[in-house]
Amino acid sequence: MDSIQSWVSEHKLTSVGTVWASAIGASLAYTRARSPLKTSLRLIHARMHAQALTLAVLSGAAIYHYYEKGAGEKSENASQINLG
Predict the structure, then answer these.
(1) How far apart are CA 72 and CA 64, in angstroms?
(2) pLDDT tens-digit profile of 15-28?
(3) What are the residue boundaries of the structural domains of the chain, listed by start?
(4) Which tens digits make up the pLDDT trace of 40-75?
(5) Boundaries of each HIG1 domain copy (predicted)?
(6) DSSP the chain
(7) Are the CB atoms for 57 and 16 separated by under 8 Å?
């Protein structure tokens, strides 16, 4: 799990792009199997699904970063108090 987190932290844009491309592919495959839509409508729906998923992933990453940064500052402040 640590290796995945370190890779994602080093390759943020690649990770987001991979999530977006995977969502496009999954949405296209799902709509192709489920509904008889035109190709243009499938692409529009796939793009909307991918954008929603990407926003959710970016929001989750921002929340994770916020709490990780807050926890790091708290432990740093506690160590300074103990030393001082």
Answers:
(1) 12
(2) 888 888 999 999 88
(3) 2-83
(4) 989 998 999 999 998 998 898 888 888 877 776 666
(5) 1-76
(6) -HHHHHHHHH-HHHHHHHHHHHHHHHHHHHHHHH----HHHHHHHHHHHHHHHHHHHHHHHHHHHHHHHHHHHHHHHHHHHHH-
(7) yes
The answer, yes or no, to whether residue 77 has pLDDT greater than 70, is no
Q: Which residue has the tokens 């999954």?
A: 26
Our measurement of the distance from residue 14's CA atom to the centroid of its chain's CA atoms, rounded to an integer in Å, reads: 10
CB 19 within 8 A of CB 53: yes
Angle, CA 67 vertex, CA 65 and CA 69 arms, to 5°? 65
| Residues 15-27 as b or e (16 or more Cβ within 10 Å = b) | beeebbeebbeeb
